[in-house]
Amino acid sequence: CQDLIRAIAHWDFGAGMTDMPNIKVPCLILQSSYYNNEFKRVPLQDGMKTPFMARAQELIPDVEVKVVTGAGHFPMIEAADQVNGNIDNFLQRLR
Predict the structure, then answer these.
(1) Cα(80)–Cα(68) distance, rounded to whole angstroms?
(2) Is 27 strand, coil or helix?
């Protein structure tokens, strides 16, 4: 099972890096967790940045990258107020 998860993560990362430069509209990335060196999903803390987040900031001209704290893999359920607040702030900026 770990091999499958690792393969999916590598595919996502590779495909994402290829496609990110093609994003020409404002973009919001919310991330709450990442895979550590033991390939276990770990919640992000304020101030942390994953390689995916850093790369998105390099490749997407108009991107906001936010950490959703106190949540695991399902931040939209586990931290709905934070997620909704970030989406609302992003949309307000677009008006």
Answers:
(1) 10
(2) strand
- Cβ–Cβ under 8 Å, residues 43 and 84: no
Q: Give residues with Cβ within 8 angstroms of 85, minimum separation 6.
A: none
The token duo for 56 is: 């998105």
CA distance 59 to 92: 23
Nearest-angstrom CA–CA distance, 78 and 3: 27
- Sorted by sequence, the CB contacts under 8 Å of residue 21 that are 6+ apart come out as 59, 60
Give dist(CA 51, CA 29) in Å, integer.
13
pLDDT tens per residue, range 13-72: 677 778 888 999 999 999 999 888 887 889 999 889 988 899 899 999 999 999 999 998
Q: What is the maximal distance between C-alpha atoms in the chain?
A: 44
